[in-house]
Write a structure and sequence with these properties.
This protein is mainly alpha-helical. The chain is built from three helices and no strands. The protein starts with a helix and ends with a helix.
Length: 127
């Protein structure tokens, strides 16, 4: 029984070390919104082109990391993940600003059309 318990403990420790030693490369899908993950350059959409260019940069950085091994590889992957997360934070702020500006413009146009509609009715009544 003691041998079984000792073997189980040894197995768990070895399995834990193996998991710790494994270094997993970051994947593009970790950082990219699903609708842009497979995008190509598009002259009609700046957002699509932005994510396409970021994917190319990501793949280039990932290829550079493959030149390393061990702790250097792990550090390279961590740095790549941190850089992509910073880019996502900037994207989120810009996207929110763009959405806010679009909503403001939509509201402004709606109010303007309502104003012109009322003026048109008033002008019709005056005649």
């Amino acid at each position: 029984m003691k041998k079984l318990i000792a073997t189980a403990i040894l197995f768990v420790e070895v399995a834990g070390l193996a998991v710790n030693a494994a270094v997993f490369a970051p994947e593009w899908t970790e950082f990219c919104p699903p609708k842009y993950c497979e995008s190509n350059e598009n002259k009609f959409s700046k957002d699509v082109t932005y994510w396409y260019k970021r994917r190319l940069q990501f793949n280039n950085a990932l290829a550079k990391c493959s030149a390393y091994q061990g702790k250097q590889l792990d550090a390279c992957y961590d740095e790549l993940r941190a850089a992509e997360n910073r880019k996502n934070e900037v994207w989120d702020v810009r996207y929110e600003e763009k959405t806010r500006a679009t909503e403001y413009q939509r509201q402004y146009n709606k109010e303007r059309m309502e104003f012109y509609g009322v003026n048109r009715i008033i002008e019709t009544i005056k005649k």
